[in-house]
Amino acid sequence: MTLQNLSRRSFLAGIGITGGGLVVGLGLQGCSAEAPPTFTTTDFAPDAFLQITPQNEFRFICARDEMGQGVSSGLATLFGEELDVDPTRFDVSFPGVHSAYGHPAFSGIQSTGGSAAMRGHYLPARQAAANVRDLILEAAAQDLNVEKSKLSTDNGEVIAGEQRYPYAQFITTAQSLPIPEAAPMKAPEAFRYIGQDVPRLDAAEKSTGEAVYGIDFDIPGMKYALMKRSPMFGGSVNTFVPDDIQRMPGVVDVVEISNGVAVVADTFWQAKKALDQLNIEWDTAEAAKFSTADLRADYQTALDEQTGSTTDEEGDLALAFRNGDTQIEVDFWAPYLAHAPLEPMNAVVKVENGEAEVWTGLQGPPFAQASVARALNIDKAKVRVHNTYLGGGFGRRLLATHVAEAAEIAAATGHIIKLIWTREDDIQNGVFRPASLMRMKASLDSEGTINGWMAKRVGGNILPDRMVGALPVVAPDFVPDGVLNSVVGLADTAMSNWIVDGSSVEGLAGDYDLPNRVIEHVTVNHGLPLSYWRSVGHSYTAFAKESAIDVLAEAAAVDPVELRLNNTRSNPRQHNVIKVASERMKSMEAEKVGSLGFAAHSSFHSYVAQVADVSVQGSDIVVNKVLCVVDCGRAINPDVIRAQMEGAIMFGLTAALHGDLDIADGRVVQSNFHDYPLLRMNEHPDVEVIIIDNDEDPTGVGEVGLPPIAPAVANAVFAETGQRLTSLPLRFS
Amino acid sequence: MIRFELNGQTVTTEDSPDTPLLWVVRDTFKLKGSKYGCGAGLCGACTMHVDGESTRTCILPVGSVEGKSITTIEGLRQDGELHPVQQAWISHSVPQCGYCQSGQIMTAAALLEHNPDPTPDDVEAALAGNLCRCGCYPRIKAAVLAAVDATDAMEGTS
Ligand code: FES
Ligand code: FES
Q1: Count of domains observed in chain A
Q2: ipTM
Q3: Which of A390, A398, B12, B35 could form a disulfide with B45 if both were Cys (CB 3.0 to 4.6 A apart)?
């Protein structure tokens, strides 16, 4: 999607359909603020996803948001397979809000995350495309007066005997026919594109600077806004003096909105310079005042003294610990983290005549629609959203508070607004991966069986915070804010007292045969806004669980990989990735530079095992190489899977080696990449990926490569130095 | 008024001289390929060539490029052909979110200009200042080295 065709589409969609030719029904139902982009009257648009032009060009409307995970290439492959069109021929665009684009794996909510696109769309996408192909064949049979069974297809052409005809030749007839609902799909043996390294569809426009992100979208007359928000969580504006600022070059307005103060100017730089001069006195009566050390002490007290909610219990743990030969108990810490996608938050918003139009890149356009509708107190149907490429998501772009800010500024000033968060805003005013303190107790019997397993996690829950953003999407417009907020409040209370957000404890006990186990959770909430962060709870639970396994093996003087193999017999796919990785690990022994560490963890319905080759130079941990074995069911595009494993390993290494977000007196200490460093080119390990070939339905790849890397490195550090590091990021004390 | 050369064309701007070149190029000249990632010279997303040198333009006042020649990702094509680095990027499916890639490519192209035969270590050192949150590093490195080979092969045949 380039700037040019983004505007062309918006334009065409905006003016509606004119000119000659047939008006094509979109086959769409349900409430809609907008239909998907419609190009010309002569295009054939059998459903919400595919359009065939009279020139036999293929347009694909991608229901899931492209944040780098390769979903547009993956979904295009599913559609291309059953339509029988080379997916690289698709011209891809991204829709606004429409019920047709709901996620099959998220109860129909139009959002992208949870490594769920291939899992959710594998059958529905193929069925939709197979239906369209069948329709084309039916139309061809009529037009050519040939029996349908005598026709076949090949890459966008119908084949009748020696003759080839472009699909487009039959779209006029196809428009008059009913679309079949359950046309036969291909048998896997007949797949031409699924399972192949189809080149990424977006590689060219992302290598030429043509790809359009939210930050690139301009409208004539648009003004730039930058903001100051309370540096302390929960603070609010007390006073500020706008007069001097208002006289600075280019400044158009200085306005207070619910979240802080915005400076609006003709250019980014003018807004930035003026904002830097703006002094705001903050009201800190309600603000957080704690520091990381206080938080950690509170967590420790809760861990030692409080009984939490039991989220999972099986067998007789006390008996098991009495019967075991070897017992261990270790506490693990993981800090708050920022997502830091390389494109900071931004949005362009136009508010006019009680309606709003939004251009931004989000993991779900409905979140923007709902937030803006709430902020402006208008119906969701009056908010139209255009989604662009996302310069990174990782969970951060599930939130649309920045879009609501832009809408408030646009409404307050009467200007079309492009709001840009600076990197400092992103690190300091964002939402965070929750910090966690975890206690792991395990017992091993004389047979080498883990006969007791106890895990307890202390920390905040994401779900109540996320409900603030998600509830308005599903709630009807007439539900007042107060009611929504009280529902959210109830959820928060419920999670503190009775139930647990599953994502807070996910991964603490999975994978192993654990006949006697207890998983406990103590909610301690310090009021920081929390959100999903690539691999969510698994990003810290895998560190505790897989480190604990190695600690247990060490204590019992058994091989840690054997221990894993012995205790995954009821989990054959996890057992298998461990086995495959352990075999490759044997040959890595001869190639290694430092020492090897092993970890395995399943998440998002996929199974992963990793081996890290790690050296220690002074106080630096150097990761030389990572082997990653993944079973994610049928591989739709092996090269995208490899890329996601590589990327998740780098993302996980940033967290394992560098990621630390400190709070001091209620504010985030770090502010930019000098003190919140990301892994760099010169630190990256070589990555080898082995994809298990199988016929299971496809499962997640975007997040699953991340959880095992921190414990694999920690286990390798132990092998290399004899020091067991139990806090993230991994540092020698 | 400040005058400089942008992708081979002489341009002038009335933007105040302290405005970082990045914003002048993006918002005055509407070339959006160069990105804002940190505004502090820490990530490389804004990298352009200033008189052939790869430069962080989010902290480079436009007043300091008077009379200089600026190349952005949009100007990297040679005779309408993609630069060998860009071709290697596409054939290796390097980009994920893609946001860092203009900066990566501009840094890589400048490296090859100065050092036509870099070692893997040279590539890592040259690109150490270009952050990629998506973690495309293994492919970036492979693509730069492939671009070296492609350039060698082309020169070998000419
Ligand atoms: S935006 Fe210039 S170095 Fe980050
Ligand atoms: S591709 Fe996303 S930051 Fe590099």
Answers
A1: 4
A2: 0.97
A3: B35
